[in-house]
Amino acid sequence: MREKETTLYIGPQHPGITGNMMVKLKVTGDTIISSSTHVGYLHRAFEKLIEQRNWLQSFTILCRFCVPEPDPMELTYARAVEELEGREVPERAKYIRVMVMELARLQSFMLWYAGQSGSAGLYTLGQWSVGDRNYVLDLFEMLTGGRVYHMYIWPGGVRRDLPEGFKEKTLKTMDYLEKRLDQYNQMLFDNTIFQKRAQGVGVIPKDKAIEWGVVGAPLRGCGIKSDVRIDEPYEVYDKLDFIVPTAEGGDIWARALVRKEEIRQSISIIRQVLDKMPEGEYYNRVPNPMKWTIPAGQVYTRTESVRGEIGFYVASDGSDKPRRVHVKGAAYTHGVTVLDKVLKGQNIADVSFILNSLGVCPPEIER
């Protein structure tokens, strides 16, 4: 007797779903036959909204592309504008930018620990990591005045210099997080539940990874070494010593192993930046934003975020507003194309588990 086919909807209210999105599943029993991603529950049309604002007003929108990780959006857009105009960035500002990017990676990794462990029913680790994430957000608040949205990196450098005592507080936080990682990893990676749930689940075939447009930790979890910070260095990444970790298998376990090492690399990079940061200016001031025009032209810049490569195509017609802005991010590829392919044949209990491992951010899909 043929088993009945059922349609099942997971999200947007499901706590395991990454943000406000829904996955529509066709299942027989508890096995997924097919899936499709549905968004439309959050933000949309960011690209067009940016085109209606001047070059600096856009920054309040950029942050909404991915709420948990807004800083790569700021940097990628700022670099595009700087390249179009030919504006130089002070060396000190470049170091500060790298520090901000790595702090953004750290707080995002804390959320990943929570989502990945929580999806496996290991809620204690999620409570730990979200609590420890607040120490990183404290640093952002001290530096920028905001905990989540910062509007700190903009064309010409950064909005303000490091406040007094920031270096010491940052180093103290790095020491604390580094010690906590041993406890995190013991609870997660040494846990039989996580091992059995992660190994061999949500596999991305190595020979399909690039064809499908996979980036970031999911790509490196297929054994492919790719990172914009190394492949096409920007700011001062070429002056820093760090590695790009990889793992074999293409499953949730491999992606977790990559992120496990990446968080330690981010801590190391932050320490190097604070040690090597030169004195000097932090901002090459731009003209009055209401009268600031950018020479006609077009440019594509890319940055490595915690979710993978973020790319901005920005075109100017010489006016005070962008003529065209288009964003290429990991979420659209991972949350639509890859997710639909990977979920086929999996158990319905693994949907949110797989989704968290891919690093999907729904607003970026709706952009």
What's the arrangement of secondary structure elements?
Blueprint: E1 5-10, E2 22-28, E3 31-38, H1 46-50, H2 59-62, H3 71-85, H4 91-118, H5 123-144, E4 153-154, E5 157-158, H6 166-188, H7 192-198, H8 206-209, H9 216-220, H10 228-231, H11 252-276, E6 297-305, E7 308-316, E8 322-328, H12 330-343, H13 351-358, H14 362-365
Antiparallel strand pairs: 1-2, 2-3, 4-5, 6-7, 7-8
Structural commentary:
With 367 residues, this protein is α+β, with helices and mostly antiparallel strands. The protein has one domain (44-330): Cytochrome-c3 Hydrogenase, chain B. The protein is 46% helix and 14% strand. The chain is built from 14 helices and 8 strands. Strands 1-2-3 form a 3-stranded antiparallel sheet. A 3-stranded antiparallel sheet has the order 6-7-8. A two-stranded antiparallel sheet has the order 4-5. The longest helix is centred in the first third of the chain and has 28 residues, at 91-118. The chain is globular, with a radius of gyration of 21 Å. The chain starts with a strand and ends with a helix. The mean pLDDT is 91.
